[in-house]
Amino acid sequence: MIAHVLAGLTTKEAAREMGISSTTALTYRDRAFSIWVFAAIGN
Questions:
Q1: Which of 8, 17, 20, 43 has the fewest CB atoms within 10 Å, measured from its CB?
Q2: Considering all CA atoms of the chain, what is the largest pairwise distance in Å, rounded to the nearest integer?
Q3: Contact of 1 with 28, CB cutoff 8 Å
Q4: Which residues, in sequence order, are CB contacts of 32 under 8 Å at separation 6+?
Q5: CA distance linking residue 16 with residue 26, whole number of Å
Q6: Residue 28, pLDDT above cutoff 80
């Protein structure tokens, strides 16, 4: 998910490419970026 979003796709476009629903994509995006933020804060 992160790679798709960083490549400039919207969450909806990324979901379509990954073959998942938009709501699942939103969950994946939120979880991925929250982990990324916590990791950045820890460093």
A1: 43
A2: 34
A3: yes
A4: 1, 2
A5: 12
A6: yes
Contact 15, 21 (CB under 8 A): yes
Q: Which amino acid is at 2?
A: I
pLDDT at 21 over 90: yes
What sections of 1-43 are H helices per DSSP?
Answer: 2-6, 11-18, 22-42
Q: Which residue ranges make up each domain of the chain? A: 2-42
Please check whether residue 4 is in contact with residue 18, taking contact to mean a CB–CB distance below 8 angstroms: yes
CA torsion, ordered 23, 27, 28, 33, to nearest 10 deg: 130
User: Measured between alpha carbons, how far is 16 from 1 in angstroms, rounded to an integer?
Assistant: 11
